[in-house]
Write a structure and sequence with these properties.
By secondary structure, this protein is mainly alpha-helical. The chain contains two helices and no strands.
Length: 57
C-alpha cells in the first residue's frame, strides 16, 4: 500500500508541475492556460483527498 501511495503522490506532483509549466508559458486566459489551471487545481484536490484519506486511517 505504501508503494502505491508514493507512486500516486509522485504522479500527482508531476501533473501539478506540468500544469504550472503550462500556466507560465501561455497568455493569460487562453485555452492552454485554462487547461494548465485545471490540471493544477485537479492535482491539488487529488493530493488533498489522498492526504485526508491517509490521515483518516
Amino acid at each position: 500500500m505504501a508503494k502505491n501511495l508514493i507512486i500516486s503522490t509522485l504522479v500527482i506532483l508531476i501533473a501539478i508541475l506540468v500544469g504550472i509549466l503550462i500556466l507560465t508559458n501561455y497568455d493569460w486566459f487562453s485555452q492552454e492556460w485554462l487547461i494548465g489551471l485545471g490540471i493544477v487545481i485537479g492535482g491539488v484536490v487529488a493530493q488533498g483527498i489522498l492526504i485526508y484519506s491517509k490521515i483518516r486511517k
